[in-house]
Amino acid sequence: MSVPAPAPATEAPPGQPWKAATAAWIGSALEYYDFFLYGSAAALVFPKVFFDASDPATATLLSLATFGVAYAARPVGALFLGHVGDRLGRKKIMVFTLILMGLSTFLIGCLPTRAQVGGLAPVLLVLCRVLQGISAAGEQASASSMSLEHAPPGRRGFFTSFTLSGTQGGQLIATLVFIPIAQLPEDQLLSWGWRVPFWLSVAVAVVGYLIRRRLRETPAFARQAATEGVVRLPLAVLLREHWADVLRVIAGALIASVSTIFTVWALAYATSDAVGLSRTSVLWVGALANLVALAAIPLWAMLSDRIGRRPVYLFGAVGSAAAMAGYLWAISTGSYPLTLLLGVVAFGLVYSAANGVWPAFYGEMFATRVRLSGVAIGTQIGFAVAGFAVTFAAGIAGPGGDDWSAVALFTAALCVPPAIAALTARETRAVPTELLGERAGREESRQERVSA
């Protein structure tokens, strides 16, 4: 007679929510250190290293386009990693994405330049960038799903916000590492200096692996596997039961355009001949804005646990349209104090409202059986558009690259779909975790099984 295997535990051990949130924070910080480091290099170094420096405008445009390549690869990675994460668990994806990001970023630091191998150099750069994009496709979705499903009742917003505050932490670290590198003499910066931050990603992969390998799988996923089993084709279930939510997440994810334009295009514009601010001073704007965001993100998330996801997210979307216009105008004046102030307000405070709430806001739209797929696919399609927003902004800015008002209007237009997504979504902050994403009849059946 066979003995049935015991059902997996469905309650989180004491302290596990904090462990999951900490792993999400540290892992996301390390992961996005790699990812945002590329943004700084694409704006300041790569046009001269990998592209034809005799045509600076075209070289900058092509360099910024490689920044968007990773976003184009993200939807493909989301399809695969979302499927695996909903079938095998969140933990495996969190470990895989971290290792892949660390490896691909290290390889960027080893690439030959255009002067050494000609046109092969940008091709190799794009290949490494694609690997970065595949990695990033599963990172935030798996980390936020892990945090959400471990979080205690009434605090999902706060615990899932660690994923995004970790992202801001990674961007802050990348900026602080790049500031002394950017101060090197031009010949040293372009020969070896820019490579050092990329080589540090080896430590990123090792530390992240040690942290994440000790995590337990979430109670919600274990309960799903024990009671109903995992679905064979999460994508089919997702499109059948949650197609409208996927569209909302795609629309909402366009809010990331604020981040890419702030991080990459505004940096290139501020340091161009049209404005003339120094590289180091503009990098400090990003560093201080991210420092403020580290505090603002969990505070906005805690507010969403009290008043709901929708109003906080809506404020972040609408407010970012106005705040970014103010920031780009400040850059155009050439006033560094004004640029610093409005940069911190726009990115550190206002944008953080949407940025800190979206992990809970998006994740709560989906049932456990398809949550990772839903968040990954929806966000990565939206992020793909947001990634190329930098390239579009460079084109919209005109031949001189200094039409900031056109870029401000473009950014504001990209904030409209996220606002619509917030207005049409259901409020989910008070819905029990096991009932998230469930519909009428299925919800009643699900509640009976959970109670039993």
UniProtKB/TrEMBL annotation:
Looking at the UniProt entry, the stretches that span the membrane are 57-81, 93-114, 194-211, 249-270, 282-300, 312-332, 338-362, 374-398, 404-425
| Database matches in Pfam families | MFS_1, Sugar_tr
What is the topology of this protein in the membrane according to its UniProt annotation?
A: Multi-pass membrane protein
Name any GO cellular component annotation. Answer: plasma membrane
Which InterPro entries does the entry mention? MFS, MFS_dom, MFS_sugar_transport-like, MFS_trans_sf
Q: Which UniProt keywords apply?
A: Cell membrane, Membrane, Transmembrane, Transmembrane helix, Transport
Query: Cellular location of this protein?
Result: Cell membrane
Asked whether the UniProt record includes Transmembrane helix among its keywords, one would answer yes
Q: Which residues form the Major facilitator superfamily (MFS) profile domain?
A: 20-429
Q: Which GO terms describe its molecular function?
A: transmembrane transporter activity
Name the PANTHER family on file: SHIKIMATE TRANSPORTER
Q: What is this protein called?
A: MFS transporter
